[in-house]
Design brief:
The protein has 9 helices and 16 strands. Helix content is about 30%, strand content about 25%. The strands form 3 sheets. A 9-stranded mixed β-sheet has the order 15-12-11-10-6-9-8-7-16. Strands 2-1-3-4-5 form a 5-stranded parallel β-sheet, sandwiched between helices. A hairpin with a 2-residue loop joins strand 13 and strand 14. The protein has 2 domains: about 120 residues, NAD(P)-binding Rossmann-like Domain (Rossmann fold, 3-Layer(aba) Sandwich); about 200 residues, Dihydrodipicolinate Reductase, domain 2 (2-Layer Sandwich). It is α/β, with parallel strands linked by helices.
Length: about 350
């Protein structure tokens, strides 16, 4: 049976949730609630019921699930009201502006026995899924290091993302996704140290980019970089493993893989470069490597809501767990600490 859903906040992501709910096989959209009258009027013009207040939403016994897509600084108050009103809750990211807020929401969920999770939709990105698939297959061996980059050239948007009180900045906007993806690739390994440098190229109020290096207890390192002033973007993913390398230049492209099948050091001939010879950097050939592409994996964003609905019924565990949310938030808080101190800091995350 479908779960009855209300979307709270009918802005950009709220509209996204409404659109997908109308196409969903597991939720039935009862309506929306937005504090702005013009948004409620817009919903009604599209044939969507607009609740008159949050109290009306909470008083509607038909509502099984609320998706909260409002300004980030208001998440905790509304999430907790929904949980105490007997509703299961999905919250948009960033779920909180600090660990204390997140702990409050988790405690309320545990107290009320209602499901609480966050819309980490980038776990369904095909580029991330491709990297995860190759790594988990073991086809190019154990992971050495991975680089994840999101590059744009338009600066930071002039909405909440540019305003510190609302959780603006690229660490909260894109870092919350890219950090979560890396942690999903290394779920059983602790981050033992990290270094983060924030950018302030187009604004000084919040970070408009950042570079984060994470070091794990198994010797693996990960680079996460988000930039909004990069007119030539670097590859989306670059992964080195003990038997080869995988790279995705752009999320729309297939994964390029070069797998080492033989070493053959003795037969390497020097190659000419601009100002001399080099044997060290001589390119590989088909005798020692296999070069191929891996097709983009299938992905369905509706699987997020499918999991939430099954988790509500106890049929499967929720995919985005409280422990995962706390781990990502701990890394985010450590990013700000590292930048403020201007140094690498030791952690256990």
């Amino acid at each position: 049976m479908k779960k009855n859903l209300v979307v709270i906040g009918y802005g950009g992501m709220g509209g996204w949730h409404v659109e997908h709910a109308l196409q969903s096989d597991v939720v039935n959209l009862l309506g929306i609630w937005d504090i702005k009258e013009e948004r409620r009027t817009l919903a009604e013009s599209r044939g969507i019921y607009a609740y008159h207040s949050l109290d009306e939403v909470l008083g509607d016994s038909r509502v099984d699930l609320c998706t909260v897509a409002i300004p980030n600084d208001q998440h905790m108050e509304v999430v907790e009201a929904c949980l105490r009103g007997g509703k299961n809750v999905i919250c948009e990211k960033p779920v909180a502006l600090n660990m204390e807020q997140l702990d409050h929401m988790i405690a309320t969920a545990n107290e009320t026995g209602k499901l609480f999770t966050v819309h980490q939709n980038r776990r369904w990105d095909v580029d991330f899924l491709a990297m995860k698939q190759i790594l988990n297959s073991g086809e190019i061996g154990e992971l050495i290091n991975i680089e994840s980059r999101i590059h744009g050239s338009r600066g930071i948007p002039s909405d909440w993302r540019a305003q510190k009180p609302y959780g603006g900045g690229m660490v909260f906007d894109w870092g919350v996704h890219t950090i979560d993806q890396i942690l999903q690739l290394l779920p059983d390994n602790k981050v033992v140290s990290l270094n983060c440098k924030l950018d302030n190229i187009t604004t000084t109020e919040v970070d408009d980019g950042f570079k984060l290096n994470m070091y794990f207890d198994n010797g693996v390192s990960a680079l996460v970089e988000v930039g909004t002033y990069n007119f030539i973007p670097m590859p989306r993913f670059y992964m080195r493993c003990k038997k080869g390398t995988a790279m995705i230049r752009d999320w729309r492209e297939e994964t390029q893989v070069v797998k080492c099948k033989a070493w053959h050091e003795n037969d390497v001939l020097p190659v000419k470069t601009a100002a001399g010879l080099t044997k060290t950097m001589a390119p590989r050939d088909s005798v020692t490597t296999d070069t191929y592409t891996v097709a983009r994996p299938a992905s369905d964003v509706h699987d997020f809501y499918r999991n939430v609905c099954k988790a509500i019924d106890g049929e499967e565990p929720q995919l985005i767990t409280h422990a995962q949310l706390k781990r990502s938030m701990a890394v985010i808080m450590a990013c700000f600490e590292s930048d403020a101190k201007g140094q690498t800091i030791s952690v256990c995350i």
